[in-house]
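Hi V.,

You were right to ask for the full record rather than a summary. Here it is.
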Amino acid sequence: VDDVVLTFEDVVPGVGTAGAAFEFVNRADLWPERLPHVGRLVLTEDVPGVQHMEMDTVTPDGHTHTTTSVRLCFPPERIVYKQLVPPALLLGHSGAWEFAETSGPGGSAVVTARHTVAIDPTAVEAVLGPGTTLADARRHVRSALGANSQATLAHAAGVARAQA
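Predicted structure:
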């Protein structure tokens, strides 16, 4: 289990106020206009705070994969999610975005993006290439998901600064 399940988090300080950062992540319907790694996103929210998403993520090499997720939003502190259809390399992916104010001047927030994934050992070579190991897959998943989270938060910080 320790070889296929991976939990990690990225903590990003200085993203404006917690409310502005929450709103950026909450408004995933705007991500295709705001985030270069999101090619398409369909968001439905029939019940306030319960979001269903279908998203096309564009990888650095130009490939696209489609995921579907459900998110539960608890303003202004937390959004939790589960991918119902994860990318081919994963058996499962869930996580959380957590937003906290800090005591810095002018209002500054810290956002934590937490991921728990289960890697599909039978898909490693098919997705990442012959000879790729489970350890390679863990590094790849950590790098790719971390980069997307950090890019999202960098853009959130830019929007928050522009609003201030």
